[in-house]
Amino acid sequence: MTEPIRVLVADDQSLLRGSFRVLVDTAPGLTAVGEAGSGAEAVESARRLRPDVVLMDIRMPGMDGIEATRRIAGSPGTAGTRVLILTTFDLDEYVYGALRAGAAGFLLKDTSPGVLLAGIRTVAAGDALLAPSVTRRLIAEFARLPGAHRPRGSAPEGLTEREREVLVLVARGLSNAGICEYLRLSNGTVKTYIGRLLNKLGARDRAQLVISAYESGLVSAAREAGG
């Protein structure tokens, strides 16, 4: 029998924490292993409980969700824990920072229960929760940051031409299926390219591949946000 996905809920509002916990505990294949009311508690609980996924609020007293995410994602002891950010606004100014800190993706707090549960399963499986609409918001936020308008041509070194093509499509929000169709490659081949990119760029997941593509200049943030 497959072990359930273990979830830690971090939010400074006790009512929301309780609601999320009940939702997780009543879903097949998921179990809530703990709660945290602050970023510091989330870090401590993640180290102690070793959950598969942390549902992380951004705005919490003391240590916020971004710093907590950075510590969880950057610690060898919690390397296998994935952080799914829950935010109130889809254009939250902190979303980019959270993804840069190592979050696997983000969802809105008012998302439907089914979408939230599917999101937990997605990040637990090692995928990033970055739908095309989410990616466009990330691009728009990145384009507003200082230094975002870099000249083209400073792409990551050591990539083959095909790997660069795949990275560009990932950065534009295409799923593996979309990349397969666009490049006329098999699903297995695309997965192999994604794996190589993760390894070569030292990225944890798809979210960090998107960020790498824009920070390196391989893809123009200004052009993509404007298009």
From TrEMBL:
Domain HTH luxR-type, by residue range, is 152-217
Which domain of life does the protein's organism represent? Bacteria
Q: Which UniProt keywords apply?
A: DNA-binding, Phosphoprotein, Transcription, Transcription regulation
The record places domain Response regulatory at 6-124
Modified positions (4-aspartylphosphate) are D57
Protein known as: Response regulator transcription factor
